[in-house]
Give the backbone structure.
Amino acid sequence: MMKKVSGISRRKFIQTAAMGMAGMKYIPGIVSGVAPSDRVRVAVIGLGNQGRAHMNWFNALPDVEVAALCDLDKLRVEEARKQLQKINPGSRAEIYHDFRHVIDRKDIDAIACATPDHWHALIATMAFSAGKDVYGEKPLSYTLREGQAMLASLVKNKSVFQLGTQIHAGENFHRVAEIIQAGILGKIHTVRLWKTGGSPGLGFPPNQKPPDTLDWNLWLGPATWAEYTPVRCHGSYRYFLDYSGGVFADFWCHIADILFMSVAPKGLYSVETRGERPFDGIADAPKWIEADFKFRDLDVYWTTTPPEVPGSEKMHIGAHFEGDKGTLTCDYETRTIHINNEFLNDIHEVPKTLPRSPGHQQNFIDAVKSRKQPESNLLYVREMTIPMHLAVISFRLKRKLMWDSAREQFIGDKAADYLLEREYRKPWSLSL
């Protein structure tokens, strides 16, 4: 179990972290400390669909060598090896089934982690301690306290971290942020975020013996012991609260990213949710969840249906910003500005002030070389992830929760505070 931090001032914690990250903000064009001919050696841990996407992305970069592939499912890692050799016949990537052996390799510079959520923090902090940088899949961590531990470890070890919010690198999010920050819409007072769809129930499959090709005990890792059934692992793990927070936790950061990128809300003080668990199976992550967040001077709403604004009905995921002079609705690739009774897709008078990304993965590799933090750095994404954690806790407890942003704990609610961390199954541990 992680050490409790309820007595630590959040302000002190953040100040310490910020001091440790001073001068580490990503600056495009900075000269690398590594010769241009040197290649960053990357290991990919977790080789499901997203992990193999990581493998392909990094393999395509000229200054990267995919040096190791790791998955505790022998069938998956062999499939990935064949895929890599097909696109890169000269690949010398070695195969592993236990991520600890990868982290022990002195010649690995960075890891790309695409494991289930309950492994994110442990693997990242172990990698940081071993002198490796991390490109980690979202969400950042399974619990809020794990995110604190990750940030503390990153600062201590002077590591580099990029969250896999690939949309962050796109032109559209940069332009939306520029327009909002220019004040064209006036003061933003309300933001509506949404993602359609939800978690399935998965039925009631019987428990069975794990296949010989899968290390089920290692897959569970720090999570509570559970008997094996195929729907508990691989892609459908996300529908169990022991390993994730469902579709909501999966997609929160992808669209909340533009909220934090544009407005950077501060002073979160309450969260209230509505939702239900699936009734047709063993899955227990939210079938659907809606959440109301109150920040200082800003209201944020998460819904499973689009708000009633023009164009939103065509978006399965999106954000709607309401200011006292106008509104802006966007998804990953499009935006609509409503101002002075006109609908526009851009305001050309607003200059481009934000540096553009060279690509999300390249941004990470550039940061590994320069030792400057990338765009979706840990300090930034941890702040973005906190509301998600609180909403899942509110859903589990079925009540409105009051939050002390300064101390990062709930106000007068020990049961809610308990859910800010989790008891790790032995022998696994994570210390803050």
About this structure: The two ends are 10 Å apart (CA to CA). DSSP finds twelve helices and 16 strands in the chain. Residues 133 and 159 are 6 Å apart (CA to CA).
